[in-house]
Design brief:
Length: 206
């Protein structure tokens, strides 16, 4: 008897609008990504991502750092919820908090982040503005596994976006965001199909 492969459970860490979360969640619900939704954990009770999650019928919870004495206690609550929903993969989708090494160790190569630049260029905040200020002609976005550094983990996928003369932060961010959604969906899809492996910090897509 052929044993049906158990679908991976994908949970999300969000902080803001949640458009990246929504892009992936819709592809999970449509069956394009062979996975089940787990839980959406927001670092902010006001995040629009919480509303998007409710509209999609996916469980969500705000776990705000201000309600915890230490970063460790805050993360313990996050991990408790990830485990409660039997999470196999964590997608950091516009998540604005730094994770501790113990969290990263527990989920080594199981946390995918989306960053709006072609890493290693322009890590950290306001990556789109950094690219504009520098005057590069090409920027874009990157998915990667989170490691202990800031936007330094093994790169899974990248997409390039041209900066045109009349681009400003809004037009550029909009163009990049569209590509973020595309490569994040593909990266999660490949992960859920067991097609990603990491060797010497290089991601191999089978
Ligand atoms: C995106 O550019 C993301 O890369 C950055 O925040 C923006 C909004 O993300 N971290 P989302 O709509 O909250 O997913």
């Amino acid at each position: 008897m052929l044993l049906k492969k158990k679908k991976k459970i994908v949970s999300f860490l969000v902080s803001g609008k949640g458009s990246n979360f929504k892009a992936v969640a819709e592809k999970i619900l449509s069956g394009y990504i062979n996975a089940e939704p787990g839980i959406v954990i927001s670092s902010s009770g006001e995040a629009l991502a919480l509303k998007k999650s409710e509209e999609l019928g996916i469980k969500s919870i705000a776990i705000e750092s201000k309600n915890f004495r230490t970063k460790e206690e805050h993360e313990t609550e996050i991990i408790k919820n990830l485990k409660l929903y039997k999470t196999d993969l964590v997608v950091a989708a516009g998540y604005m908090r730094i994770l501790t090494p113990s969290f990263i160790n527990m989920y080594r190569y199981k946390i995918i982040n989306i960053h709006p630049s072609l890493l290693p260029s322009f890590p950290g905040k306001n990556a789109q503005q950094q690219a504009l200020d520098y005057g590069v002609k090409l920027t874009g976005c990157t998915t990667h596994f989170i490691d202990e550094g800031t936007d330094t983990g093994p790169i899974i996928m990248q997409a390039a976006v041209e900066i045109l003369r009349d681009d400003d932060i809004h037009t550029l961010s909009t163009k990049i965001l569209k590509e973020e959604h595309r490569i994040l969906v593909e990266s999660v899809k490949f992960y859920c199909e067991n097609r990603l492996s990491v060797k010497n910090s290089i991601v191999i897509i089978k």
